[in-house]
Amino acid sequence: MSNIPSDLKYTKSHEWVRVEGGVATIGISDFAQSELGDVVYVDLPSVGKVLAVGDIFGSVESVKTVSDLYAPVPGEVVEVNGALANESQLVNDDPYGDGWMIKIRVTAEIPGDLLTPEAYGAVAQ
Amino acid sequence: MPYVPHTETDTQDMLAVIGSHSIDDLFREIPANLKVAPGSLNLPPALDEHRLMAHLTEIASKNLDCTKLVSFLGAGIYDRYIPATVGAVISRGEFLTAYTPYQPEASQGYLQTIYEFQTMVAELYGMDLANASMYDGATSMAEAAIMATGIKGREKVVVSEAVHPHYRQVLATYCWSIGIDVVTVPAKDGVTTEWNAADSACIIVQYPNFFGCIEDLAAARKAADEAGALLIVVADPIACALLRSPGSYGADVVVGEGQPMGIAMGLGGPVVGLFACKKEYVRHIPGRIVGKTKELHGDKIGYVMTLRTREQDIRREKATSNICTNEALMALAATVYMIALGKNGMTQVATSSVRNTQYAISALKGIGVKVKFGGKVFGEFVVSLPKNATQVRDAMIEKGFLAGLPLGTYYDGMDNDLLIAVTEIRSKEQIDAFVSALQEVLA
Q1: Is the peptide bond before B270 cis (omega within 30 degrees of 0)?
Q2: DSSP for B97-138?
Q3: Rounded CA gap, B187 and B141, in Å?
Q4: Is the C or the N end of chain B the one with fewer CB within 10 Å?
Q5: Chain A hits for B315, Cβ within 8 Å
Q6: What are phi and psi of B84, to 5 degrees?
Q7: Contact A41 B283 (CB under 8 A)
Q8: Whole-prediction pTM value?
Q9: Kind of pairing between the strands at B202-207 and B191-192
Q10: Spatial distance between the Cα atoms of B256 and B77, rounded to a whole number of angstroms
Q11: Model pLDDT for residues B342-395, shown as the tens digit of each residue
């Protein structure tokens, strides 16, 4: 059973999001990293990139596949986890902590259809 | 291609296997109005194998080639010595028949040669890594430029006019297709001195350049740094056996043509593109990389495709390059060449080329021929003649020499200029004969 923290919101495409003070921190779920297997590369956007909900903001490459990453909230990228450039394994080791990917300053309404931990738990079966 | 005839019975047997009744059956998808009616082409009657051979030999005898002419023509393709071992190795069936080797369990030998190729190219250029080959030098350069625009997020590339004109044409085509601006900066006295590189993704310089002159890579690196651009160097691998490597100047990407390393001069190919870069750009490269590993339980070495970029696998729609196969057989030829000569041998080839070039320059000056550019050259140089260079080239063919490349086609105001190449295999006697023939033509 994968780890689904109760204080986060989720997407059907397996991103998690934590909004604090208008800034959303985004990564991929424990379920997603375990399905992907060893992550070997994470392609992330530059700071300043403006994203709408559902925009592809990067990709995560494992030994098995490459998957796109989708923005769960709208806004401007204000920070990128530079540590992933050399330590992509952090996504596997600590998906909700050191393996975070980007921070977005939320500039519009957060979509109402983000999943609760319970609802995501049903998706990540 | 061998002449392998088959009988009517053979044909019928083959058709029966696939469930067709006639040859025409195989082409029934093609609309009748698109088919060429039998007899409508103006073709001579069929010949038997022996007569066909004689006929083709007669046509081929009209060509002039380097068994009949002494070549001083370079401009990107060079008449260098090819050790016999190169031909012996690359004509082995295991290598000759293989398409790109994907399956590590079936193609360890080939994968190992590619691994060695990558290693030696990277070392020669002084770079962290090299890929498993490109089509040719020109497409390598264009791919490097496209890669730089992706890395830098900029839509302009700067290229010196002293980069091979054909390479620049390929660059222009690639960039046109995706809306990238190409800005060409002029060369002065044969080398590039002014780089207007602001807002560009990269600057591209050739080393030695199209005129044979050795560009100041330290200055190019500085210009690239000031513009926040990548430095792409198009480098002659043989020259790199003697000159300081582009990598030691801080080049980000080094590309080149591998033909001088064991590949025969052909009419446009086959050739092989070299592509090397810094490790930080490995995820952006076109083509692929073969890696070396060890068994999980044991000590046996294994070779595998380690990095395959997106063009042919799971994310084709994200591809930034159109390369989908490589030039594995020609890369193998270059690998065998480098192994056969070794570091010292390659340095000797480069040193002999310089010595012969300098001898030719002084002999030409001795008959009053003017060398156009004053700087240092490697293996190639431009002379300004008192006559039209194309006419001189044609007259020299009559005397048994491929005198070089007339530059008027490529550069305005250079109708009397000739680009002359002198490799390690041009003997003193050949150079002397060339100079005296030129003296007669110019008289």
Answers
A1: yes
A2: S--S---TTT-HHHHHHHHHHHHHHHHHHT-SEE-S-BS-HH
A3: 19
A4: N
A5: 59, 66
A6: -60, -30
A7: yes
A8: 0.86
A9: unpaired
A10: 11
A11: 999 999 999 999 999 999 999 999 999 999 998 999 999 999 999 999 999 999
